[in-house]
Amino acid sequence: MAIHERAIIEAVSGLGFAGNEEGLIPAFGLYLTKHFADYYNRISYALLGDFIRRAPELEEDARALLIEAGRVCSFHTFGGIMTSVEWDAVVRPMIESREDWVLGMVAVVNALGWGRWEVKSLEANERLVLTVHDSYEATGYVRDYPRAKEPRCYLAAGGVAGLMNLVYQGDITARPTFSEAYYLEIFRSPRTFAARETRCLAMGDSCCEIVAERDPI
Amino acid sequence: MTAAIVPHADLDRSTLTLGGRRVVLHCHHYNVFLQRTIEDGLGAHAPALLTQAAMESARATLSKLEAEGPAGSPAAVIARGADVLAHHGFGLADVSALGERGGTATIERAHYAVGWLAKFGRRATPCCFFSAGWLAGAVVVAGGFSPERVVARETECLAAGAPRCSFLVEVW
Ligand SMILES: [Zn+2]
Ligand SMILES: [Zn+2]
C-alpha cells in the first residue's frame, strides 16, 4: 500500500484536538495549541522589520533565527508525531520505504492548517522539492505587508529541512529520543539538510516552493 | 462549549479558520522557542509586541464571532474569549473577576508557562504575554473599546515560580 494522503488527513483531523479539563492539548508527547497565524506572523515579521531597520544586512540574521525556530519545531513536532501510537495506527501500515516516511509526514502536515504541502520530487537521501499552497506565513504577509523581495515562509523552510534531517540524517525509523544532543547531532552535522524557498507567494509567485538539499546554503 | 469556537477545517486546502482568521496547530517547543527568539532579539520591546499581537488576534477573532452570533452580554463575550483559550490549548482561565471595566483573571496551567518550564525550566519574569494580550482583547470586544484603552499584564507566572498565572486587566 502506498501513502494514502486523504485517509491520513481525515484520520488526523478526526482526532479533534481540543483542550482537556486543564485547557491543554497533550498529544504526541507535546503540548499542542490551535494557535492564531496572525500572531506568529506579527511577531515574526516585527522581528524581521526591527533587524532591517537597525541595519539592512541584519535581514539575514533574522531569517536564520526564524528558520531555526522552524527546525526546532519540526524536530519535536514531526519527531513526536512519527514516533506516536497514532502514527503507528494510521500511517505506519501504509509505509513501504523510507521515502514513505517523508510522504506520510507531509500528509499529516496537511491536517495542521498550515496550507497544502505537496511533494514535487524526492530523491532518496539527497533532495526534496515541495510546494506550499495557502502558506499561512505568506498569506498573512501578503495581506499586511508590501511585496517582498525575499521569501517569507521561515517556519515552512525550517520544517522541510527538519523533516529531511529526521528521515535521512538521523534515523526516525529507529524511534530516537528527541534530546538536545540528538538535535545537535543531526542539525549541526556538515551533511545536514538545509532548505531554501525558491518561490514565495509573498514575492508575487503563485505558490511557495521549498528545496531541501544536503549542501548548507 | 459552542460550535462557534471550533475552527472550520477545509480538508482540500489544508486550512483551519476561526472568525475568518487562519488557525494553525503548533506545539510548545515552537511556541516557547519562537517567543525566546523574539525576547532575545527585541529585548525591552518584546513584551509589548507579544502582548499587542495577542490582543489583536483576540480582537479580530472575537469581534468576528460577535458579528456572526452575539454572545449576549459583556460577561458572555469575555467567557467566550476564555472558552477559545481553553479549547485551543492555552489553559483554562478563571475570568469570574474580569469584566468590561477590567479586573483580574487566573490560569492554573497556562500553555506558555507549562511549555516554558518543560523546555527551558524556570525563568525570572512572567512569560504568558499571549494570555495577557488575549484577555485584554476580550475586554476590548466586550466593552466596545478602542484597543489602546485596555492594558493587561501578567502579575505572577507559574514559569517564574508562582502557584499559577495571574493577570491584571485595566481599562483607562
Ligand atoms: Zn512562501
Ligand atoms: Zn504565566
Brief descriptors of the model:
heterodimer; A: 217 residues; Muramoyl-pentapeptide Carboxypeptidase, domain 2; four-stranded antiparallel beta sheet; 6 strands; 17% strand; B: 172 residues; alpha+beta; 8 strands; globular; binds zinc ion
Verbal overview:
- The complex is a heterodimer of chains A (217) and B (172).
- By secondary structure, chain A is of the alpha+beta class.
- In chain A, 47% of the residues lie in helices and 17% in strands.
- In chain A, the strands form two sheets. A four-stranded antiparallel sheet of chain A has the order 3-4-6-5, with helices on one face. A two-stranded antiparallel sheet of chain A has the order 1-2.
- In chain A, β3 and β4 form a beta hairpin.
- In chain A, α2 crosses α6.
- The model of chain A has no long low-confidence stretch (mean pLDDT 95).
- Helices cover 45% and strands 22% of the residues of chain B.
- In chain B, strands 4, 5, 6, 7 and 8 form a five-stranded antiparallel sheet that branches. A three-stranded antiparallel sheet of chain B has the order 1-2-3.
- In chain B, β1 and β2 form a beta hairpin.
- The longest helix of chain B has 23 residues.
- The termini of chain B are far apart.
- β2 of chain A pairs antiparallel with β3 of chain B.
- The complex binds zinc ion (2 copies).
- The site of one zinc ion has 10 residues of chain B, from loops.
SSE layout and pairing:
The complex is a heterodimer of chains A (217) and B (172).
Chain A lengths: L4 H9 L11 E3 L2 E7 H18 L4 H24 L2 H6 L7 H12 L6 E8 L3 E7 L2 H9 L9 H16 L10 H8 L6 E6 L8 E6 L4
Antiparallel strand pairs in A: 1-2, 3-4, 4-6, 5-6
Chain B lengths: L7 E3 L4 E4 L2 E7 H15 L3 H23 L5 H14 L5 E2 L3 E2 L2 E6 L3 H10 L8 H15 L6 E7 L8 E7 L1
The complex binds zinc ion (2 copies).
The site of one zinc ion has 10 residues of chain B, from loops.
